[in-house]
Amino acid sequence: MSARPLPADTPAAQGVDALGIEAFLDAVETAPDIEPHSLMIMRHDRLIAAGWWAPWTADRRQLLYSLSKSFTSTAAGLAVADGLLDLDAPVVSYFPEIEADITDPGSRAILVRHIIAMASGHVADTLDRALALDRGDIVRGFLLLPPNAPRAPSSPTTSPPPTPSARSSNASPAAP
Questions:
Q1: What share of the chain is helix, strand, coil (3-state, %, to 5)?
Q2: What is the pLDDT of residue 166?
Q3: Is the peptide bond between 5 and the residue preceding it cis, with omega within 30 degrees of 0?
Q4: Which DSSP state fits 38?
Q5: DSSP assignments along 87-147, one per residue
Q6: N or C: which end of the chain has fewer CB within 10 A?
Q7: Whole-angstrom Cα distance, residue 91 to residue 68?
Q8: Assessment of whether the complete model's pTM goes beyond 0.70
């Protein structure tokens, strides 16, 4: 897949005050507790401002951490609406190529809705442990990690929130 440039325009052409953007940038740069990496501003499907603070560049990959959840949950909602994703299906059922490898009953019982609610049952960050188990397939590595906390029961009509002890910021195989 190759990157295509975003359609661009001037702030003024899209009804945005360029001086306001400059004032925002000045405020960000002078705030001692903010370490900006990059900024892109879109308006009416047009890129009206973009920039990177050294050493960051447009070509350098950046970790998005929790921002990834916004994209993932949006995509999941669209997939559910299109009938492509079942919130009550076991996660492992979407990965038939590794299903036989996942033998722990707790791992096999993780539902899509558990992942979306960050309630997989893992009480600590899973990234390093998942990568240690399978550097080439992070989903497999994640599912090989048995959950170590109970998940709240869920059903197609009710999904109680996860208990705090079962909540993990990295419970998603998409972004462990």
A1: 35, 10, 55
A2: 41
A3: no
A4: E
A5: TTSBGGGG-TTTGGG---HHHHT-BHHHHHTT-SS--S--HHHHHHH-TT-HHHHHHTS--
A6: N
A7: 18
A8: no
Residue 40's identity, in one-letter code, is M
- pLDDT in the model for residue 77: 95
Q: Which whole-number Å values give the CA distances from 122 to 11, 66, 110, 143, 157, in the listed order?
A: 45, 17, 11, 11, 24
Could you report the per-residue pLDDT of 106-146, keeping only the tens digit for each?
A: 999 999 999 998 899 999 999 999 999 999 999 999 999 99
Q: Which two tokens stand for residue 57?
A: 């560049």
107's tokens: 């791992």
> Max CA-CA distance within the chain?
59
**What is the reported pLDDT for 152?**
58
HSE (side-chain half, CA atoms, 13 Å) at 113: 16
